[in-house]
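Section 5.1 Outputs to date
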Amino acid sequence: MIPWQLIERAPVPGGEGELSLQRRGEEYSIRVDRAELMNSRQHGSEEELARLGCAAVRERPKARVLVGGLGMGFTLAATLSQLRPDAEVVVAELVGAVVAWNRDHLGHLAGHPLKDGRVTVRQGDVRAVMAEHRAAFDAILLDVDNGPSGLTQERNGWLYGPSGLRAARAALRQGGVLAVWSVAREDAFTKRLEREGFAVQVHGASARAGNKGAKHTIWIALG
């Protein structure tokens, strides 16, 4: 078996571990310490997040979508494929190195979505972007960490708690959609969304094309 090759390392802001970009042949992996966050061979559920999250807004003129977490660019690329040419997509990515890796090493995997003129990159926490904007987005897609209970960084827990959900709802326009990706289903999170006034749909999604690989969860919450 081909061994993994370390390409680059980067500290996680706030001192919560170290990210690494690794390659094995044509396969790429981003890890925090020893835990794998994403793999270039498994992005079907990220693309489903974009499809489901944008379904209700894809034909809206000048739709504005916020994507929390750049990853390897698959969610962003799928989001762009769903939207009109006059749309705007804001990507909030906390780690500057991840943005650089997408430009220098990973862009070809998803078709270089950062080169699309509809994209604006905000280096920083997605919660700060939500706090700065009220009734500004038609959809918010959160692909941050591993979901409500699969956290590798404790700071991300705020996004999935009552305060984070209220901030997301306040940042959405009327009829907007909050879409959340998770490595696993969590009924408690469904109830939390409902308590914050969202109408919720829960979907299963396969990590790989052809209904293969691990089964992930996507919540579609209508504000």
